[in-house]
Design brief:
The protein is α+β, with helices and mostly antiparallel strands. The protein is 26% helix and 23% strand. Residues 55-229 form the CHASE domain.
């Protein structure tokens, strides 16, 4: 358990690293070089399936991208299914963690999101329109200061007397299989490290709705299965 928590913490530090870069970046260097930065973080920290940037709450970059193309352009602050959670993450100004949950494309994952506040972000969010998969359109208008939509201005903490404003989100997705691969749980079952072999299960006692059918068990040895004792 300690090793698992330690690896999750190490993986989550990727978001703080991205936030630190974006906070002081006035020339979009981080955004322009995101694939190489993400590669470095994934290689050094391990247990990360992909990293994402969402300026002003709209996903613009995912690395690696393969298999996640459909998420590009997803406006979290305009999607009625996501806006409440997105605003809560902005308000708490700390990492918001969801999961383990079952992904629509398959697999079980943990999703972590951090709201980034920058000295160089615009004071007001840009006007934007987003269309969901059913063809419904949702929009935000922030350019007319006399008739601002709700949540057009999202302020961060004052730092050294300077205001910060919402830049967007840094997001980490980690498949449970990628996370556990860093910890050699298979060795427990095979007896690689100890004289005894272990059958193991890892469960979330406050399971996400997508995990209720497996009783919150999001990983297990091949011999243990989903049975509940």
């Amino acid at each position: 358990e300690t090793a698992l928590i330690g690896q999750i913490s190490a993986s989550l530090s990727s978001l703080h690293a991205l936030s630190a870069l974006l906070k002081v970046d006035d020339r979009n260097v981080t955004v322009d070089n995101f694939p190489s930065i993400a590669d470095m973080l994934i290689e050094q920290l391990h247990g990360i399936t992909n990293l994402q940037l969402a300026p002003y709450g709209t996903v613009s970059q995912i690395h690696p991208l393969e298999g996640n193309e459909g998420a590009i352009g997803h406006a979290l602050l305009l999607d009625p299914a996501r806006v409440t959670g997105a605003l809560a993450t902005i308000e708490q100004q700390s990492v918001g963690l969801v999961g383990p949950l079952t992904l629509l494309q398959g697999g079980t994952a943990i999703i972590a999101r951090l709201a980034v506040f920058s000295f160089f972000a615009s004071e007001f969010l840009p006007d934007e329109t987003w269309t969901n998969s059913d063809g419904e359109m949702f929009s935000r208008s922030c350019s007319d200061l006399s008739a601002l939509d709700e949540n057009c201005k999202l302020e961060g903490r004052m730092e050294n007397g300077t205001a910060t404003y919402f830049w967007g989100f840094a997001t980490m997705v980690t498949l449970v299989s990628d996370l556990l691969a860093t910890l050699d749980f298979e060795g427990l079952e095979e007896g690689s490290h100890l004289d005894s072999r272990f059958h193991w299960r890892i469960l979330d006692r406050t399971a996400h709705a997508s995990q209720e059918s497996v009783h919150g068990i999001f990983a297990h040895s091949s011999s243990a299965g989903y049975g509940v004792s």
